[in-house]
Every structure is written in C-alpha cells, then in structure tokens.
Amino acid sequence: MTDIKNITVHYEEAPIYDICIESDFTLLYKELEKIGTKNKKICIVCDSNTKELYLNEVIDIVKDYAMEVESFTFPAGEESKNLDVVKQLYTQLIESRFDRSDLLIALGGGVVGDLTGYTAATYLRGISFMQIPTTLLAMVDSSIGGKTGVDFDSYKNMVGAFHQPKSVYINTSCLKSLDKRIFVSGIGEVVKYGLINDLEFYQWLKEHKDNILSYKPEALKQMIYRCCKDKQYVVENDPTEKGMRALLNLGHTIGHAVEKLKDFSLYHGECVSIGIVAAAYLSMCRGTITKDELKEIKEVLTSFTLPISVTDLEVEKVLAATKNDKKMQAGKIKFILLSKVGQCVIDDTVSDEEMKQAIQYIIKK
Ligand code: GLY
Fold it and tell me: What's the CA gap between 125 and 116, in Å, rounded?
C-alpha cells in the first residue's frame, strides 16, 4: 500500500499546483490559504447536480477565505458544455466586476471542470481557477493537466486552451453520492492508465475490484492516487501534447466517435472502454498482444460492469466520425496501440481497412 501524500505538479521544473486526495472537505481551507484567496472574489461554478449535493458545504468553507463568494449553475450534462453557457458565465463575471486577480472554482465533473477552466483561460485573457472534481473521471483525468474547453456543434472539445489550475482538491466521498453508472464510467479511464504504462497497477486493479466497486475508502484513495501519479508523470513530461501525452488517448479515437454517434447517451468512460477493446483488437491483429490478453482485457472491463461493445452503429459512419477527431495530424490519425499489456505506442499507420475491422469487432449484431 502506498503512503498517500499531496502530489505537486510541475511545469518546466517549477511547482505549479498540488493535487490533494482527501475523504472530505475539511482540508479545503488549506488550499485556499496556499492560493491566498482572502482578498479575492470567488465564483463557484457547478451544475444542477453538484449544486444540490455540495454547493452549500463548499460555500460554508470558502466564505471565510474570500472577499466575496457567489455561484453560477448550469443544467447537468454534456449538452451544456458549449459557448452559450460560457457566455452566460462571462456575463455574470462582468456584472459582478470580477477582475484578473479573482478566482473561479469548478465544483463538478468533467463538463464543469472543462467549461470553468476554459472560461478562466479566456476571461480577461486569463484568471485563476481551482478544480474540485466530484466524478471519478474528473478526479483521475480531466481535472489534471490543464486541458480546458467546450464542444462546438457536435465536435467534442473542439474549442479550448491549456490553462493550469491553481489547485486540485479531491474529496473521494463525493463518489458515493453520484450515480453508480457515472462512477463506473470513470473506471474506463482508470484501466487505461494500467494498460498505457503501469502493469503493476493493472494487476492491482484486478485484485481490488470488489473493494473499488463497494467504495472502500482506502481502495478508492489508492486507486485515485496511482492514476494521479501516472497522469502527473505524463503531463510534466509533455504538458501540451507534443508527444507522449497522446498516449492518454488510448481508446479515445473510436471512443469519441461512438460517443458522438450515440449522441452522448453513453458516458465518456463507457465509450473509452469500448474504444480500448477496439485498440486492443487492432493490437492483437498486429501481433503485439495475444488473443488471451485481449480476452483478459475484455474480462477486466466487464468485471467492472463497463461495456465492451455497442449496438446500432454502422462501421462506415464510425470510421467517418473518427476522421473529424482532433487527434488527426497532417490528415493521419494518431492511433494508440498496445505494444504489450502495460505499454502503448502512438501509431499513424493504421489503415482504414484495419480501422473498419476494429470497429466491426466492437459492434454487437
Ligand atoms: N484527457 C487526456 C489528457 O489530459 O491529455
């Protein structure tokens, strides 16, 4: 068992922010003290779910460490992750006279974090923001590394900016208050870390499945800590995705296409799970993993109740949707393949024929 400490994320060798992994909000004040918020206005951004669940508790803490506190709420769901909602938030910040020294706090899952971060990146050419992720996906992935953005029409994360948070405060007990399917969806991203470059963690996940699915606090903390450490390593080495950060997109090329064609009725992590199976199948076709290893990857995902296939989709349409993905470079898709279980590579030689076979594999008849 690893001793869990705050993780300090560096950018060009300088410490930029801490990731704190706690089981409640008691130490949130310490992060506010570190940021130095006493003379700042703070706007807490949440969605309709996190407003009900945590806003009052967080305001109670934040109000003693800020000059003024207000909140902004939008309807929960991917449909809200757009420039119209950003505009509403800009309007509130302008009317409340937020200046460049003030702070936004994102209290919610990936949609809240990405939208708040993007608003912070662009309002007055950039103000500070803090992440309080409340879903597993946001805790282990989207709150770390400074990727912010919104969807544009049906293009996911098409408009965005890199903007680092001042702090990431994780309260693992939030996971229990959220819908179980949303929790499990995040495990798609968790398994991804094991497959990319942490075989030991992949084995650990298999052994601790029951404790994770029953929300055992120590298992959750260990799991989240390990993912945050893995993500820290990647984003410190490649903050703006010039190279290895693209490995984090394992399962995302086909996953994003499925997510879009299913009109966001499947959660992101569920689509990543399906996309991982497609990538693993392609890897097996190329001989880098065995048939048994592919079978085992599917079993691990299924054991966490994650989907490994999808119905009612056409191969050609999924292929076409992958071409609109941001991960294209000079007309080629940067596909992430397994060079073995626990190690991935970026590959731009995957042909349409191979893609079609992999897509066919994940479509259930
Ligand atoms: N979610 C992938 C990344 O942060 O690069």
Answer: 14
